[in-house]
TrEMBL record:
InterPro entries: PLATZ (IPR006734). Pfam families: PLATZ. It comes from Arabidopsis thaliana x Arabidopsis arenosa. PANTHER family: OS09G0116050 PROTEIN, PLATZ TRANSCRIPTION FACTOR FAMILY PROTEIN. Residues 171-182 have a biased composition (Polar residues). Residues 160-183 are annotated as: Disordered. Residues 160-170 have a biased composition (Low complexity). This is PLATZ transcription factor family protein.
Amino acid sequence: MESGEFPAWLEVLLKDKFFNACLDHEDDKKNEKNILCIDCCLTICPHCLSSHTSHRLLQIRRYVYRDVLRVEDGSKLMNCSLIQPYTTNSSKVVFINERPQSRQFRGSGNICITCDRSLQSPYLFCCLSCKISDVIMRQRGLSGFLRVCNVLDLTDEVTTTTPSSTLEPTGSNRTSSESSGNEGEDMFWCQALACTATTEIVRKKRSSLSTTCRRVTEVVSTTNTEAPVNFLNRRKNPPQRAPLY
């Protein structure tokens, strides 16, 4: 197969290791290289996006510690049909490369045409590389597999800062300023009510515990005072002897 028929970006997609630290931003946080620039044929991190704003970008994701890409994104560049997809974060993804197998599948079920991995029907390939290998072997090229894509933007917003978690407002007519203000106020009252309830429970438990201890002490003291008196009363009476006949 001639090098012109196999695009350079596809070779990078199949051979490069993603999620390694970017050497240009090794001191920054979230510097994993999880983006493939189709035009530059290299992997970049979110901090490198400023230099690739007008380029076609493909985001790589992770699923069970393996590199995957969204079917929606990959279908713009390639024919991803008949590759078994998996669902993660409400999105369908496919594996990029073949995964190691502990043992070969032995049975009459559906398997991958290339690597014999067990699959669900009606899929024929377990990953993108397996389908590419089959297409090259059958067609001696990638004609019909690659698709023309002039624009490819990141489907998810890739940021270099950690997004802050927010609470959804209960009312639908609140404005953003009102929801943020009421949100903090609601959180304050929730914490105050929780502290008050906890204090009341502890106070009731202590009160019941002290009452129980007081009752036990009274019973024990009464028993201890009555026992010696009865014993002394029994000792005061002289021993009675049987009459002599």
